Amino acid sequence: MTQQKETILGVNVSDETYTTIAKKLFLAIEEKKQSFIVAVNPEKIIKASKDPELKELINSADYQIPDGVGVLIASKLQGGNISNRITGIDLMNTLIGVAAKQQKRIFLYGGKPGVAEAAKQKLIQMYPDLKVAGVIDGYQKDNQLIIDTINAAKADLLFVAMGSPRQEEWIRANRDKLDVSVFQGVGGSFDVVAGNIKRAPASFRKLGLEWLYRLMIEPWRMKRQLALPLFLVEVFKQKNK
């Protein structure tokens, strides 16, 4: 199944919805094909526009999901059509829900000791039919053991929580050694699922204002939030070149 992509400051962005991307990913599982998902937001695109290696890493993925309302604004500024924000954690939850229905196996890798296991227990409560093939925390240093454990578990989907871009670098370096179809880097999502980190209220999420909620409870993030106006300025400048 084909997909549409746009390029924003040299970074590919996929034009998908939760429904269309899930359909394509689970078809890929049936066809024994691999799919690599990376989330992109304004801060990451700005960094990638100045870092050729990061840009190449992001663009090497099969899907670059628009995880940030600023990406949607940028698409409109340059005459594009991307209008659906796809957050990393919500895509993970969507895929897990479909996996439970289709009896596909998931694996959780990353996070501090105990976090992936706690996330597993919460997910099983949410989806009683879910098959969690295994978990490994992010402090395991034996990479061959990690690969062997994931392969032995016969997982269909692998969620990697190490923070970006480390998780994406690990996926790209190891995907050819793994008998897994779907790879997604999910940052701090295991902590959210486990209940260690609170998400923004649904009202903020619906309006794409999670960044504002996080800024309200963590004012020290102000410097990072300056990436959004700088990003939109750069997009506007590129459009008018």
How do you describe this structure in short?
The protein is α/β, with parallel strands linked by helices and 241 residues long.
Overall geometry: globular
Spatial sequence of strands, sheet with the most strands:
4-3-8-7-5-6
Order of helices and strands: EEHEHHEHHEHEHEHEHHHHH
Beta-strand proportion: 15-25%
Alpha-carbon Rg, integer: 18 Å
User: What's the structural domain tally?
Assistant: 1
Cα end-to-end separation:
34 Å
Instruction: Please identify, by name, the CATH architecture.
Output: 3-Layer(aba) Sandwich
- What is the number of strand segments? 8
Low-confidence spans: none
Q: Please state the structural category.
A: alpha/beta
Mean pLDDT: 91
Count of discrete alpha- or pi-helical segments spanning 4 or more residues: 13
The major β-sheet equals: 6 strands, parallel
Question: Would you give the CATH topology?
Answer: Rossmann fold
Report the helical percentage.
40-55%
So what's the CATH class?
Alpha Beta
